[in-house]
């Protein structure tokens, strides 16, 4: 299996990046928080998990090994595939996810698109003894350009299935949070925008 890839970022799309490794461009599917830390032309190291299907080999990428390990652990729960596991990590940080499972906070888990109450109950039941306690060490990646977060959060929401109009409304709703920080964290703002949309 491919544990990580390192190389210059050749391209960044809505839900994936192409990283050049030894002259080969590898497409790595990432959630918006991971994509926010990548810059075209700059070298990056992305922790990866390979999902093997009969008709495909798919690489999923993460900003660190902690996210990757949680991605793989989530898929051991009944009904959780790679896309749902990645959506969970897009909405919740690793520590938020651990806290939600440890405290049986179903309301937090159902904020993830695709996870209903029964699914949240299964995740808690099957992972509570495996997921561990929050580490308090995971932080969001700050953006260099203050206003660049808007485009990335918008693209992330669209990539998760929301309409462009809903995404724009959510970006506007979380703008005050970004104004409070000189270096807004795209993962944090994306999670806030998803919370706004889940209440709509």
TrEMBL record:
First and last residue of the signal peptide: none
Domain Helix-hairpin-helix DNA-binding motif class: 72-91, 107-126
Family: Belongs to the RuvA family.
Organism: Kribbella antiqua
Name of the protein this chain belongs to: Holliday junction branch migration complex subunit RuvA
GO molecular function: ATP binding; four-way junction DNA binding; four-way junction helicase activity
Main location as per UniProt: cytoplasm
Lineage top rank: taxon: Bacteria
């Amino acid at each position: 299996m491919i544990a990580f890839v390192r190389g210059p970022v050749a391209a960044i799309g809505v839900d994936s990046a192409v990283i050049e490794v030894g002259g080969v461009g590898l497409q790595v599917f990432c959630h918006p928080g991971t994509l926010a830390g990548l810059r075209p032309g700059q070298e990056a190291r992305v922790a990866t998990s390979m999902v093997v299907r009969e008709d495909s080999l798919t690489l999923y990428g993460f900003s660190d090994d902690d996210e990757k390990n949680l991605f793989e652990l989530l898929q051991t729960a009944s009904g959780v595939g790679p896309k749902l596991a990645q959506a969970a990590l897009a909405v919740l940080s690793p520590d938020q996810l651990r806290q939600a499972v440890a405290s049986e906070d179903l309301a937090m888990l159902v904020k993830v698109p695709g996870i209903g109450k029964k699914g949240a109950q299964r995740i808690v039941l099957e992972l509570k003894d495996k997921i561990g306690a929050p580490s308090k060490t995971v932080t969001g990646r700050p953006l260099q350009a203050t206003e660049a977060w808007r485009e990335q959060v918008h693209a992330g929401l669209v990539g998760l299935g929301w309409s462009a109009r809903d995404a724009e409304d959510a970006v506007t709703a979380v703008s005050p949070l970004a104004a409070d920080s000189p270096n807004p964290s795209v993962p944090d703002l994306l999670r806030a925008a998803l919370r706004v949309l889940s209440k709509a």
